[in-house]
From TrEMBL, chain A:
Pfam families: CbiQ
PANTHER family found in the cross-reference section: SLL0384 PROTEIN
Lineage: Bacteria, Bacillati, Actinomycetota, Actinomycetes, Kitasatosporales
Source organism superkingdom: Bacteria
Topology term for the membrane: Multi-pass membrane protein
The gene coding this protein: cbiQ
InterPro entries in the record: ABC/ECF_trnsptr_transmembrane (IPR003339), ECF_CbiQ (IPR012809), ECF_transporter_component (IPR051611)
UniProt name for this protein: Cobalt ECF transporter T component CbiQ
Species of the source: Streptomyces sp. gb1(2016)
Main location: membrane
Membrane-crossing residue ranges in chain numbering: 43-60, 72-89, 109-130, 233-251
């Protein structure tokens, strides 16, 4: 992929967070999320501290809060589930604005909302400060099986191509006056999916032949090995270490 | 159905992660046999297809629409191993890039939406195609049933994981009813679309449908005015049979592992539930729910009322055993894979 092909999730920048090696960032985010998830939900202040930590990272990475908040929308379906909890969970009841709510349900909803939101925010910061390609290199560096990384990189590389193909088919359908309105139109949509599968599979075969003709033997050569110095690891470790401290405080205090 | 962080507690997420890692390892091994060295480009493109097809919205009624989950479709079109691998990659990328589904819940997501759907769908599909006559229509029908069952099966698996490691004590009967109820509806849509899609692909390129490999009629030659069987080049049927046995084995192993850690774990979580049940007297209601819906609910409730072992200890033992079993499987698979690697590279069967 040449220049100008960066994914829309990625925000180009030159901040210290952008400059960190991808595998350090991946490990840091994973450790941070693990710390968040294992914090007891009663320590409400701990989650506020986590949010402050993330806000700090976002500020260092020069990500605007609006962008971050917009990406948090992905969480909405589970927010709906969480909002149901106070009504369906049995247990001690409390009254809030004249509505009967259960206390364990409220705690559960808080737990899911707080931890889920922090996890999503951490992933969003990771995705918007790391290029897709280097993210895959980072995964490989973290000892994910090379075949899996190859599959993932093909998926990323051709994801937009296949999605565009789907969009073109939809434009073609609509320009012929088709509009899917109900169950009766499923047949046409399924034929679209079938055609898309055949095109994807055949494209895969063509890609493979093209690769074989250029000397592919089942493994990809690693051209740019990502390495991390001790200082970079130390910088990346700042977030999870602070989170771990907060987590431990949450258990003891 | 992407589970976010904090929905399932940390130990259970870790166990699910180990199960998912083992399944992906098995998938990698199997996919290499299904696709040879074409694995990476083909599986990558199929993953991109699954990713794209999940964006295809199907209008249901009155403005609502659903989208395909794709587990059953992938398993039937490209085979269970590659299908599982593709779904796992899609979920991994969705988790890391789109923050859709938590990073710590990745294991849960892959186990529920990848392993359970593909294994259930493919096992059912294989079983049905073996029983039904070998026609295109029966292949489509088998795809329908497989997809129809795979979605509620994933819902049941999610409920099971939720019962063991859910962070909130929602009565399991209620969760099961809600999840299975909603997902039966989703499953009908998924089944219809999957069957129609499989039918559409079979109509154009039957050779691409992994599940329909047995459909091809043997080639006949007319020699001296008489039909004679052509010398068969490669018989695909034995390969399919071998892979089903592997699928059954994998399903059995997964079930055993799940049951193993369920029975250890069921005693850990119900303390809160039991207390709530005793406080509010809702346990009769829960039991009613469980008995009404499925035997699974029955087992869950039975386990819960039997819980006497101190929770934490049982949990630690359960996690330990499962981690040991899981990593044992992982290592066994890995060790067997290494010496095989040079072999698979030789293009012996194309």
């Amino acid at each position: 992929m040449g220049a100008g092909h960066a994914h829309k999730l990625y925000r180009h920048g030159h901040s210290p967070v952008h400059a960190l090696p991808p595998h350090c960032k991946l490990a840091a985010v994973l450790c941070f999320v693990v710390a968040v998830v294992s914090t007891p939900r009663e320590a409400v202040w701990a989650f506020a501290l986590y949010a402050v930590l993330l806000a700090g990272v976002a500020a260092v990475a020069r990500i605007r809060p609006g962008f971050l908040l917009k990406r948090l929308v992905i969480e909405v379906p589970f927010v709906a589930f969480a909002l149901l909890m106070p009504f369906v969970v049995p247990g001690e009841q409390t009254e809030l604005f004249g509505v009967h709510l259960s206390v364990p349900g409220l705690w559960g909803a808080w737990n899911v909302l707080a931890k889920g939101t922090l996890g999503v925010a951490a992933s969003v910061i990771l995705a918007s400060t790391t290029e897709l390609r280097s993210l895959l290199l980072g995964l490989q560096r973290l000892r994910l099986p090379p075949l899996l990384v190859q599959i993932a990189s093909f998926m990323i590389r051709y994801g937009d191509v296949i999605t565009d193909e789907l969009r073109r088919m939809s434009i073609a359908r609509r320009s012929r006056g088709f509009e899917a309105r109900g169950v009766r139109h499923w047949g046409a949509l399924a034929k679209t999916a079938g055609a898309l599968f055949i095109r994807s599979y055949e494209r895969g075969e063509r890609v493979h032949l093209a690769m074989v003709s250029r000397g592919y033997t089942g493994t990809m050569p690693v051209i740019d090995e990502v390495t991390a110095s001790r200082t970079q690891w130390a910088h990346a470790a700042a977030l999870p270490v602070l989170a771990l401290v907060v987590c431990l405080l949450g258990w003891t205090v | 159905m992407h589970v976010p962080d904090g929905f399932i507690n940390a130990p259970v997420s870790a166990v699910a992660g180990v199960v998912a890692a083992g399944a992906v390892a098995v998938g990698l091994r199997g996919a290499r046999r299904e696709l040879d060295e074409k694995t990476a480009p083909l599986a990558g493109l199929v993953a991109a297809f699954i990713f794209a097809v999940q964006m295809l919205n199907f209008p249901v009624a009155a403005g609502t629409s659903g989208h395909l989950l794709g587990g059953a479709l992938a398993a039937i079109l490209v085979g269970p191993y590659t299908g599982l691998l593709c779904i796992a990659v899609v979920l991994l990328m969705q988790g890391i890039l789109f923050a859709d589904g938590g990073l710590t819940a990745l294991g849960v997501n892959i186990t529920v939406m990848g392993v359970v759907t593909t294994v259930v769908a493919y096992a059912l599909f294989r079983g049905l195609t073996r029983v039904l006559p070998r026609t295109r229509r029966s292949t489509t029908a088998a795809a329908f049933v497989a997809a129809l069952v795979s979605v509620p099966a994933a819902a049941v698996a999610f409920t099971l994981i939720y019962a063991i490691g859910g962070t909130t004590d929602v009565p399991i009967g209620k969760v099961l009813t809600a999840m299975v109820g909603v997902h039966v509806l989703i499953g009908i849509g998924e089944a219809a679309i999957t069957a129609l899609t499989v039918g559409a692909v079979i109509a154009v390129r039957p050779d691409l449908v992994h599940g329909a490999r047995g459909l091809a009629a043997p080639l006949k030659l007319r020699v001296d005015g008489e039909l004679v069987d052509a010398p068969a080049a490669a018989e695909p049927a034995p390969a399919a049979a071998r892979s089903t046995r592997k699928v059954w084995g994998a399903g059995l192993a997964a079930a055993l592992v799940l049951a193993g850690f369920v029975s250890f774990y069921a005693s850990a979580s119900p303390d809160g539930l039991e207390k709530v049940a005793a406080d509010k007297g809702i346990d009769e209601k829960v039991q009613e729910h469980g008995a009404a819906d499925s035997p699974l609910a029955d087992y869950g409730v039975k386990d819960i009322s039997d819980a006497r072992v101190s929770g934490g200890l049982a949990g630690v033992i359960g996690v330990g055993v499962t981690v040991a079993v899981g990593s044992g499987v992982f290592w066994a698979v890995r060790r067997r894979r290494t010496p095989e690697a040079p072999e698979t590279r030789t293009p012996e069967s194309v």
